[in-house]
Amino acid sequence: MQDKEEERSLTSVERKLNQEGYTADFVVTDGRLHAMSDDKKTYAPEDVTIVDFYRFEGESNPDDMSILYAIEAKDGVKGTISSAFGTYADTDVDEFLKKVEDLGKNLVKGTK
Questions:
Q1: What top-level branch of life does the organism fall under (predicted)?
Q2: Which of 42, 63, 67, 85 has a CA between 20 and 30 Å from the CA of residue 56?
């Protein structure tokens, strides 16, 4: 059994998600989501679902918080996107994901 700290590290969560098929690294540019490996294909908020998310706090500084989202696009592309949480949040990412949630595609945790 893994130690709880190890289980919740960003690296271990990313590894677990990669094994589950979340292999694309997403970014938000001009209000659209796209995989870094394919700049030509982009997604609007209505094209994606937030499958899960994980929050991480810095060991010594509560301002060092980040959040990792597991996302699936309607065409089956699965990947992750991360942002600082709170003060240092990426506003482009936050605005995009807020639109996804506002469209009624809130977290569908526990489904595959």
A1: Bacteria
A2: 42
Question: Hey, is 71 helix, strand or coil?
Answer: strand
In a domain, 49, yes or no: yes
Would you call 23 helix, strand, or coil by DSSP? coil
Tokens encoding 83: 């942002």
pLDDT per residue over 53-109, tens digit each?
Answer: 998 876 666 666 888 999 999 999 999 999 887 677 788 998 999 898 887 644 555
Q: Which domain holds residue 31?
A: 4-102
* Helices assigned H by DSSP within the chain: 4-7, 10-19, 91-102
In this structure, is residue 111 part of a structural domain?
no
Answer yes or no: are the C-beta atoms of 10 and 62 closer than 8 Å: no
Residue 107 forms part of a structural domain: no
Is residue 59 a part of any domain in this protein? yes
- Domains identified in the chain, total number: 1
- pLDDT (tens digit, 9 = 90+) per residue, 9-52? 888 999 999 999 999 999 999 999 999 987 688 999 999 999 99
